[in-house]
Amino acid sequence: MKKEEMISSIHDKYGRNVSKRMVKDVVMGVFDIISDVLVVRGELQVDGFGKFHTRERSARKGRNPRTGDTIDIVASTVIKFTPAAALKCLVNGKKQ
Fold it and tell me: Dihedral sign, CA of 81, 87, 93, 94?
């Protein structure tokens, strides 16, 4: 599902008294907050959904798959998501 499809789906389900533009603003606001919290705190937990968190990935050596040459991969911060048990059960069609 793409962002616009998600906004349309939310509007169809809950948007009886709000415009599609308002729904879009709220959805984008949620994504902005998730991004801001990850930058500042490195972790955001949404009960019943899951936890977004950052991890440091150290610098390492890698290989260029085309040439086989060794390359340096710089250190970086990566974003991880760990789903909550309730979400796992929902996706797997099981009751919690």
Answer: positive
Is 45 within the bounds of a domain? no
Burial annotation 43-52 (CB, 10 A radius, 16+ → b, else e): ebeeeeebeb
Give me 50's structure tokens: 């899951």
Domain range for 91 is: 52-96
SS3 at position 51: strand
For the chain, give the longest Cα–Cα distance: 59
* 57-86 as b/e: b if 16+ CB within 10 A: eeeeeeeeeeeeeeeeeeeeeeeeeeebee
pLDDT-derived band at 94, boundaries 50, 70, 90: confident
